[in-house]
Amino acid sequence: MMNKKANNIPWERIEARLEELQKDQQWLRETLGIAPAVLTNWKSRGTPVGKAVPVARALGLTTDQLLGLDSSSHIAGASPVTDDEEMAPSTVAIRMAPEHVRAGITGFGSDHVFEDGGHYHLKRLWLEERDLAPGALLAIKIRGDSMRPLMFEGDVVVVNVTDKSRVNGNIFALNFKGESVVKRLKYERREWYLTSENPDFPQEPCRPGDCDVIGRVVYFEARNFKDRL
Asked: What are the pLDDT tens digits along the chain (229 aa)?
């Protein structure tokens, strides 16, 4: 079973920043508009990654700093999260996986530990409106034909790696028998299946031990217009 606490933001990180700002927990609770019980839960289990954007904004940090993904110090001039539209960057860089995930099942092997493949930029306001932390996202370039006509080779999807809860009908990046794929999950007859948009590809059962969710697809960009026309 996954340790949910490991995916949360350690309270010690938030507490240390409060001390730097000379603010107390009541100030943070009132600033964020959360109940005392919520803050108590954060202190014992960590703050959910999905709350990184408002917490970072309140503490004057970037989301990557709050998540411990940015080695630069806020004192050294890193750009903080800000409500000033003129100061805030219009886009945010997220990790881009190398070309390791395909919209198919056969002919490709990989696990879901992705090395650095560069960066992909998303609109900052789009992320903030959805409470998505850049450090929890991974951009993946599609390879293969099984998700046509929805997704074509060369298109890009963005995956929230902290959202692994299976939802019938949603699209996920998964590790299937040692191969990383992008598929739609379907729940049928008390069993999960990997399904393709392309009818030429049969569905495959998604059983424990063979099928591991990497994350849910939260964004899609069509880049391959040649095959669409």
From this structure: 444 445 688 899 899 889 888 889 998 988 888 888 999 999 988 888 878 888 888 888 877 778 776 443 333 333 444 444 444 568 888 888 765 455 544 333 333 333 445 788 888 888 888 888 888 898 988 888 999 999 898 899 999 988 999 999 999 999 888 888 999 999 999 999 999 999 999 999 999 888 999 999 999 998 878 777 6
- Kindly report the number of other CB atoms within 10 A of residue 226's CB atom: 9
Q: Does this model's pTM top 0.85?
A: no
Both tokens assigned to 150: 């929805």
What phi, psi does 159 have (nearest 5°)? Answer: -110, 135
The two tokens of residue 177 are: 């028998």
